[in-house]
Design a protein that fits this description.
single chain; about 1400 residues; alpha/beta; 6-stranded mixed sheet; about 10% strand; elongated
Length: about 1400
């Protein structure tokens, strides 16, 4: 990851450095907007963030306050910390809110004086000087007050936006800090959510929960203001209509009571919706992370159906919430008219007074003011429920709920010169910890895996909720090698994590390493950059290599150095010792080759050796630079993924007590197959010197401990063959015996062009800031595009469109909505406009002294309609108009829901299908975090807003037409100003639209980067903490977060920039109507009724607001359509699938049916300039034959399997029983070929689904295949519906690696393929168990007459096969029959 650009490299000044006039008018944004007109803006074009807005400074303060509250044991420390950290600014904001409200309440009374003045002019009586002066003063006061309120509110909103960005950024920073500390967990109420193990939860938490977590702050401010608003509004209304406020108040309470119930349930359903989102996004994350497995198994359609099922449940919750929120919105939209009807009707009925405009219009305005505070009660209830849901989820995710207290572990020095001492320790995985720990290494047995002696058996204890290490007592002296030996699932990996203090300690004495201090946040972005640039790597007292290492996005070199300085000689020795030199020779950029997250572009052996090199380099550098220090090295089965010859070389180079790189370090190695121990013991003369100790672990307990000589006479199954003369001789033979192809490969390495050594030495060494200057592609993986060749990087930069959203995007969305639904939406919105204007015009008619002279009466009389003049009849007509207004309102909201849900479903389905069908190279170049961002943030925007914006824009157009008609009747002169006003508004809007649209795209791109870094920080947390990289990773995440917050603040500022200018332009129209009484006073214009002038003043303000709203909402729609644009991009196929055959062709030639698997002249070249991975291989395998395929890394074994699976481009032909595989669909190919991959993958779901995702097989068939692989005991207590998952969790079946592998083999058997591919299926198993399992699998596949290719590096398994094929440099160097 490259360092984010310098925050202060922006254009212009930040807001706190500008003059007061520039601050009031947002003029400091002008340079950026001018750039936006000329070209596509970048983040550097925006003004830098002010010091007060610095995300790191605010995060530091919030972390400090949160730490104090946690230590004091306060309840709800998170929200308390937020309020306590920002309370001075919140208090200032509340004062601004009070002032804004009081100014707004003053406006109706000034407006009333204007209407009294107008009524006096139209009464026919001569105006006195005092009346005229009062009226003229009221007019000019109304104009000045409106301008002042507008500018004042813009500054209040600026203050609130900046405060919101600070709080939001600080809270997200705390989320990152908790993640780096390893304290995060699933946000769901239980720990069995699929998102818990996939890292997907952070997307929903950051996108939807963090922002709503701080909403309680705004609720508290509103509640505090509520009494002032309510009392002043009631007094104002009482002063106008006296006790007639009672029925109006009762109507408000009744409608808001209904809204209260609906919005309460909306808050309830919010929690359910978020759980559905977690499930759906967790499924997406699981599928995207295991996309290769899905392609290999040809399960893409089946898994797509699973995601769509989760999506359907999410949309069901979304639809329910939309109905629960849209109905209250429909009620609220017409509530002013309804309350006006009740209040004024009661007033007329009880007083018998004639309704005048000077009474009616101010009353209507005050009624709106009264509805606002009362209407807030159900809104607050809803917001509280939503906040409670978001806060609880954020609280759980950050680990504040369900925390377990660890026993105090002493940090005093261990006795007897030991680096670590444990006495009577009990460790246990709790639900809050197993979820996040298991993310990094899903093979680690974090849940209970108590196994019977034989593989394939299970007991009831496998479904327990926690795994415990019991009564652990051990000492690790300086310089000692300790081997922790045990079968699968006995707690070896958990013991290493306990030594790292990752597994909670419940009781006992832990003497050794002190707990790492809490992560510290720099005080500013500038300090963070200085810290990262000056970082030289700190001391590494512990280093760790997991069984399945987490590799970070970056170069191979950066993954090995991992923040440490590069000492070239030592670095070269580490690469040589870890047997990486031969691999680097096949990579396009040597050690600067860029790796994708998880190292998906490397083979399993390469990933293991890179992770091992990381641990070895850190330990060796510590020994070199600090000779007095002896770092503890923890290695989790480091040789299981390596072929025996390479493993022997690595073992000798690292563990030799005489000249190994780790000589002198205390080392703990967990292993299931301790064959390599014989090599180390042989070096010591086979007597088991005191510096080599063995520890045997069973079911979480130490059953034996001592040297090899102490334990050799004991009957310990796990140590069978360790320390005997025969076994040591065998291991020694394995060490010195080399594959026949090794010599050939050594000679070929010199033919490869060496990278520019000077360039390599000059390259930066910071682990996450390096970029490959050559092509980033491993020879055994997928090819690069021409664009990547030019850029020299594996991960391509996320592109964003430029300019206007394409017309095709609009049509895509409208087509998904449905043209019929859209037409009904337009009709409903037209009805809303028509009936709302009729309601207002009816009030004009009602309040006129001479009703026959009104234009309504004249037009209706022309149509032959006799309008009533009695108050009761006019009330009835008014009631009917309001009823029709409400009906249109509900219909419009209903169409928005129906069309929006339909569009969300169809666009998501198309995007998902397109994404899952992408080739491997696309997934290598697009990080999973980037892809998940589109299925989180962009899908969320699509679900919530787009159809609503369409409705608002269409409504704005219709309202413009309606208001223009009213203004034409009242003040035609004001319409002459509209072209000028529209021109000015469009002038400013062009600057705004061009810039805001690009910043929305930029914001989403920044968010992808933030999510990717956050996800890696959490999923790779064990490695980060083990290597003391918390501060470095935390700072980088915060700097990326700073860029995201900068984009977010810029969007808000742009909105305020254009709002201020459009509002001031709009005042031209409203001012012309406010001046109408003055112009009439001087006889410049003809007289008009006070009611019509009053509505003209209101309508002129609304008309300007409508034009402004149209411009703003059109820009908002474009911003939201950017999400549709981004999803639509993923829906496009990466490349046309030509000649794709969906079904298997029928062959007429019987001889071809028995031909088996035939590869003819198969050549695989991943990139021009590299030698072929397969160089014209021709092989024929007969039906039922079992073939062992061997060769060291890079020999072409993986390419051979990928070509048979049709997952890699190749020349030549591959046929099975005469059927050419090229051109077959994945589903058709899946009927012919099945694979048991090296890393077994189980998906969240039932055992049945993991065997038969399309539910085609009957139970008997499934039971038979499970029995065939020895897993029938799994069904004894659980049945086929027991839940599985990629990681163990509450209520789910926990399987060992061996059982997972057998289950994957059962999948392949169930498919009854013509060809079965077994890829290193027993790499993690002891030799004896491996031989048993392989023999069983080969027999079962032979029984169904399947040709079986066994790729293995375990020489002991070769005799199990009928034939042996050796590969080297992509060629067959030997092909011999074994039987």
């Amino acid at each position: 990851m490259a360092l984010p650009e310098d925050d202060h490299a922006g254009s212009g000044q930040h807001c706190d450095e500008t003059s007061w006039m520039s601050y009031l008018t947002f003029r400091w944004l002008n340079p950026m907007l001018e750039v936006g007109i000329q070209r596509q803006v970048a983040l550097r074009d925006s003004p830098p963030m002010a010091v007060a807005d610095d995300t790191l400074a605010n995060t530091r303060e919030l972390l400090r306050t949160l730490g104090e509250l946690e230590r004091s044991g306060k309840d709800n420390p998170l929200i308390r910390a937020v309020i306590q950290s920002f309370w001075p600014k919140l208090a200032a904001l509340q004062m601004l809110n009070i002032m804004s409200y009081l100014l707004g309440l003053l406006s109706p009374f000034v407006f009333q004086r204007v209407l009294v003045f107008q009524e006096a002019q139209t009464s026919g009586e001569k105006l006195g000087p005092l009346t005229a002066a009062t009226g003229l003063t009221a007019v000019f006061t109304l104009i000045a007050l409106g301008i002042f309120i507008f500018v004042f509110n813009s500054q209040r909103d600026l203050f609130k936006n900046r405060l919101s960005v600070r709080m939001n950024g600080a809270l997200k920073g705390v989320v990152v800090a908790r993640g780096v500390e390893g304290l995060t967990r699933s946000p769901g109420a239980t720990g069995d959510e699929v998102a818990a193990g996939s890292g997907a939860a952070i997307y929903n938490v950051v996108s939807f929960d963090v922002g709503q977590t701080i909403d309680i702050v705004w609720i508290l401010l509103d509640v505090w203001l509520f009494p002032i608003q309510l009392i002043t509004a009631l007094l104002a209304l009482f002063s106008q209509v006296s006790w007639a406020i009672i029925p109006g108040l009762a109507t408000i309470v009744l409608v808001k009571g209904i809204n209260f119930v609906l919005l309460f349930w909306d808050g309830v359903y919010r929690d359910r919706l978020m759980f559905a989102k977690d499930e759906r996004l967790g499924r997406c994350s699981e599928g995207f992370l295991n996309i290769r497995t899905l392609h290999m198994l040809a399960w893409i359609p089946a898994y797509e159906a699973v995601i769509m099922q989760a999506r359907s449940e999410e949309l069901r919750m979304q639809r329910t919430r939309l109905w629960l929120t849209k109905i209250p919105s429909a009620f609220d939209y017409g509530l002013v008219s309804l309350v006006t009807l009740v209040t004024l009707g009661y007033y007329i009925a009880t007083t018998g007074a004639h309704l005048k405009a000077s009474l009616a219009l101010p009353v209507i305005s005050i009624i709106g003011t009264l509805i606002s505070p009362i209407g807030q009660i159900p809104v607050w209830t809803n917001q509280y429920k939503v906040w409670r849901s978001a806060y609880d989820r954020t609280n759980r995710f950050m680990g504040f709920e369900g925390r377990t207290t660890q026993a105090d572990a002493s940090s005093s020095s261990p006795p007897d010169n030991s680096v670590l001492s444990l006495q009577g320790c009990h460790f246990s995985w709790h639900a809050s910890r197993d979820e996040q720990i298991s993310i990094e290494d899903e093979e680690t047995p974090f849940m209970p895996r108590v196994h019977a002696p034989a593989y394939g058996t299970a007991t009831e204890s496998q479904v327990l909720q926690g795994f415990t290490l019991r009564d652990i007592s051990m000492q690790i002296p300086a310089g000692q090698l300790m081997a922790v030996v045990g079968k699968e699932g006995q707690g070896k990996s958990s013991l290493l994590l306990a030594l790292l203090r990752e597994m909670p300690l419940e009781s006992g004495s832990y003497l050794g390493f002190s707990p790492a201090p809490a992560v510290q946040c720099p005080g500013s972005a500038k300090l963070a950059r200085m810290m990262l640039q000056d970082a030289a790597g700190g001391s590494r007292l512990v280093t760790y290599a997991s069984q399945e290492p987490w590799l970070f996005t970056g170069s191979l070199r950066s993954n090995v150095l991992f923040g440490l300085p590069q000492v070239q000689d030592l670095y070269e020795k580490v690469l040589e010792a870890c047997a990486l030199k031969a691999d680097l020779a096949t990579m396009a950029a040597d050690d600067l080759t860029e790796l994708s997250a998880c190292g998906s572009t490397l083979s399993g052996g390469q990933r293991a050796r890179v992770g091992l090199a990381r641990a070895v380099y850190a330990a060796a550098l510590e020994l070199q630079q600090r000779p007095g220090q002896q770092p503890l090295v923890l290695l989790d089965d480091p040789f299981c993924a390596l072929d025996r010859a390479v493993a022997a070389e690595v073992c000798t180079a690292l563990l030799s007590q005489r000249n190994g790189l780790l000589a002198g370090c205390p080392i703990v190695v967990a292993t299931a197959d301790p064959w390599w121990l014989n090599m180390v013991l042989h070096e010591e003369g086979g007597h088991g010197q005191p510096n080599i100790q063995l520890l045997v672990l069973r079911e979480g307990c130490i059953v034996a401990q001592g040297s090899a000589s102490d334990l050799k006479d004991k009957d310990i199954a796990e140590l069978k063959g360790v320390g005997t003369p025969q076994s040591m001789a065998s291991s020694l033979t394995a060490e010195v015996t080399r594959n026949p192809q090794d010599d050939e490969e050594e000679g070929e390495e010199h033919d490869e062009q060496e990278p520019d050594q000077a360039a390599r030495d000059a390259a930066p060494v910071a682990w996450s800031s390096q970029k490959a200057y050559k092509l980033a592609e491993a020879q055994t993986q997928t090819p690069l595009t021409q664009e990547q060749k030019q850029k020299g990087s594996l991960t391509v930069v996320e592109e964003r469109e430029a300019g206007h959203v394409q017309f095709s995007t609009y049509m895509t969305y409208l087509d998904s909505v449905g043209y019929g639904t859209f037409a009904l939406l337009v009709v409903s919105l037209t009805g809303i406009m028509v009936f709302q204007n009729f309601c207002n015009l009816w009030v004009v008619y009602w309040t006129s002294d001479s009703k026959q002279s009104t234009f309504i009466y004249r037009h209706m009389n022309t149509l032959g309609v006799q309008l009533p003049e009695g108050d009761n009849d006019m009330l009835k007509v008014f009631a009917c108009l309001i009823l029709l207004f409400y009906a249109s309102n509900v219909a419009g909201h209903a169409m928005e829901i129906i069309g929006g849900i339909r569009a969300s479903r169809d666009i998501f389905a198309a995007s998902l299908k397109g994404t899952l069908s992408r080739p491997f190279i696309w997934w290598d170049t697009n990080p999973t975090g980037r892809v998940l961002n589109r299925f989180s943030e962009d899908v969320g925007v699509m679900d919530a807003a787009v159809t609503n914006i369409f409705g608002i824009i269409i409504g704005a157009v219709l309202y413009f037409l309606g208001h223009t008609m009213v203004l034409t009747l009242s003040n035609p002169m004001s319409l002459a100003l509209l072209p000028f006003v529209a021109f000015l508004m469009d002038y400013f809007a062009q600057y705004y639209r061009n810039t805001i649209r690009e910043f929305q795209r930029l914001y989403l791109v920044c968010m992808s980067q933030v999510y990717q870094e956050m996800t890696e920080a959490i999923r790779g947390g064990v490695s980060i903490r083990a290597f003391s990289m918390k501060e470095d990773v935390f700072c980088r995440c915060l700097l990326n977060l700073q860029e995201l917050q900068r984009a977010s603040l810029t969007k808000a500022l742009l909105s305020q920039w254009v709002t201020l200018r459009l509002g001031m332009v709009g005042f031209i129209v409203s001012t012309s109507n406010q001046l109408y009484p003055v112009l009439q006073y001087y006889n410049i214009v003809k007289p008009q009724s006070a009611a019509l002038i009053g509505f003209a003043i209101s309508y002129s303000q609304e008309l300007a607001a409508i034009i402004q709203q149209f411009i703003m909402n059109f820009s908002d729609m474009e911003m939201q359509l950017v999400s549709i644009e981004r999803l639509k991009e993923y829906a496009k196929p990466e490349e046309a699938k030509l000649n794709s055959v969906a079904a298997l062709p029928r062959l007429m030639d019987d001889e071809e049916v028995t031909s088996g698997l035939v590869l003819r002249d198969v050549e695989v070249t991943y990139r021009s300039g590299l030698k072929p991975a397969l160089a014209g291989i021709t092989l024929q395998f007969t039906v039922g034959q079992s073939v062992a395929v061997v060769g060291r890394t890079g020999a072409g074994k993986s390419s051979l399997l990928l070509s048979v699976l049709q997952l890699v481009p190749y020349r030549g032909s591959v046929k099975i029983d005469g059927i050419c595989l090229q051109g077959l669909s994945k589903e058709a190919r899946g009927q012919l070929v099945a694979i048991v991959p090296q890393q077994p993958v189980l998906f969240a779901g039932s055992l049945r689904w993991n065997l038969d995702p399309e539910f085609r097989m009957k139970d008997d068939k499934l039971l038979d295949v499970l029995a065939a692989v020895g897993l029938q005991s799994l069904l004894a207590e659980n049945g086929l519906e027991v839940k599985l998952g990629s990681t163990a969790g509450t209520g789910r079946l926990a399987l060992s690696s061996g059982q997972k592998q057998l289950l994957c083999a059962a999948r392949a058997l169930l498919a009854a393929p013509k060809v079965a591919l077994l890829d290193e299926v027993t790499a993690t198993l002891p030799a004896e168990s491996a031989s048993t399992i392989v023999n069983m699998l080969l027999k079962r596949f032979a029984d169904i007459r399947a040709t079986t290719l066994l790729v293995t590096h375990q020489e002991d398994l070769i005799p199990c096969c009928d034939r042996l094929v050796r590969l080297a440099a992509g060629r067959v160097i030997s092909d011999e029959a074994l039987r």
